[in-house]
Design brief:
heterodimer, A: mainly alpha, B: mainly alpha, Rna Polymerase Sigma Factor, Chain: A, 2 domains, 8 helices, 70% helix
Chain lengths: 207, 194
């Protein structure tokens, strides 16, 4: 049997009979109180939205009033506020395995390690420098030696400058004697016939 | 006493509803209440469930209006919402419904007590025959036979292809015919042609 699947006026008698059977179950319309319930739902939602709007409006007005109530003179500029709010950077606590060497103990000099920076003279505070344990000993020793050299340098006399008049007789420049040459130069010789030309030290059994 | 129907398309009424017009919302309800309620009642087999489903469907227009994107007409959308709600309640409602009670709500007066008794008996037989169908078969049969919707609209409501709806409808009719055959032969059901 081929079923007629398309609903319409051309339905077969079997389908008409089935439809007639089904129509014997009558269902009336919805009860009227559903409409009242939906009306109440609608009003509740509409009234529930109002306090949210009013609350947002009141919060905005309160913020505006708060900003206007604060005197302008008492307001701290942002940069100053930041400076006041943030404390000066605290020195980092050195680990126990690393000794702390004060920069004042280390005299600045051309031989100072590059990692140690010279402290400004006008700085009233002494910054701590964190170094390795062996490096600390070397820096302390270097500081002591440089301090000694500076003390000795103060004792040395400046070079003597002699003023010679223009009509003074010429003074011949004394020739350098062969004996004045350093001893090690006598042991050097030019190695001819070799390329590249190099000066090679002559083995000296006496040295 | 209900106010006269209000003019305007569904889209206009829905827009007015979202703008706070209560009467526009009531007009939407009045346009589609019968279809939604009857469909839910036949799907769930319970007037109480149908009432809850109807309220939930129309309240969803207020709660989540963005779900209705306008791709289908509002009636189809509400039927689909009722279908989803009914499927949740369907199995439980058919099981929990006491025997003998009928969701049939008829206005008083008219038929005699004997005719009322016979009609109740026929309605019970049809209702029980429908309850033997799977929900997917039952819904297409109800939408086509009771609500007179075309297959394309039914396919939109149930979220399936038209071909799948045809197959489900065919199987639903075959099973329903088998279930009603015994009652027809015993004379409990009569064919009303008209």
């Amino acid at each position: 049997m081929k079923a007629n699947l398309t609903p319409g006026p051309e339905d077969g008698p079997e389908r008409e009979a089935l439809r007639a059977f089904l129509r014997q179950w009558h269902v009336a319309g919805p009860p009227p109180d559903i409409e009242e319930d939906l009306r109440r739902t609608f009003r509740r939602r509409r009234s529930g939205r109002r306090p949210v709007v009013w609350l947002a409006l009141a919060a905005g007005l309160a913020l505006v009033a708060l900003f206007q109530a604060v005197p302008t003179g008492q307001l701290v500029p942002p940069e100053r506020r930041t400076a006041v709010a943030s404390p000066p950077p605290a020195p980092s606590a050195p680990p126990e395995s690393r000794p702390v060497v004060r920069r004042a103990d280390v005299a600045a000099g051309p031989t100072a390690p590059p990692r140690v920076r010279r402290a400004p003279v006008s700085s009233p505070t002494e910054h701590e420098v964190i170094v390795e344990p062996g490096q600390a000993m070397l820096l302390a020793q270097l500081g002591r030696e440089l301090r000694f050299v500076q003390q000795e340098a103060a004792v040395t006399t400046p070079p003597r400058i002699e003023t010679v008049p223009a009509d003074a007789p010429e003074t011949p420049i004394p020739q350098m004697q062969a004996t004045d040459a350093p001893a090690y130069r006598a042991t050097w010789k030019t190695v001819a016939g070799e390329w590249p030309f190099v000066h090679r030290s002559v083995p000296d059994s006496g040295r | 006493m209900e106010s006269p129907p209000r003019a305007g398309t569904d889209q206009e009424l829905l827009k007015a509803t979202l703008g706070g017009d209560e009467e526009a919302f009531v007009e939407i309800y009045r346009r589609y209440r019968d279809r939604v309620y009857r469909f839910a009642c036949r799907m769930a087999g319970s007037a109480e469930v149908a009432r809850d489903v109807t309220q939930t469907c129309f309240a969803s227009l207020l709660e989540t209006p963005a779900r209705f994107d306008g791709r289908v007409c509002l009636g189809t959308y509400l039927c689909a919402a009722a279908r989803n709600q009914s499927l949740r309640h369907a199995g439980r409602a058919w099981r929990e419904r006491p025997s003998g009670s009928s969701p049939d709500l008829r206005p008083g007066g008219g038929p005699s007590p004997l005719e009322v008794l016979l009609e109740d008996e026929r309605a019970r037989i049809v209702r029980e025959a429908l309850s033997t169908l799977a929900p997917l078969h039952r819904e297409v049969l109800i939408l086509v036979e009771y609500e007179d919707l075309d297959l394309a609209t039914v396919a939109e409501i149930v979220g399936a292809e038209v071909g799948a709806v045809k197959v489900r409808l065919h199987r639903a009719r075959r099973k329903l015919r088998a279930a009603l055959e015994a009652h027809v032969e015993s004379g409990a059901l009569t064919v009303e042609r008209g």
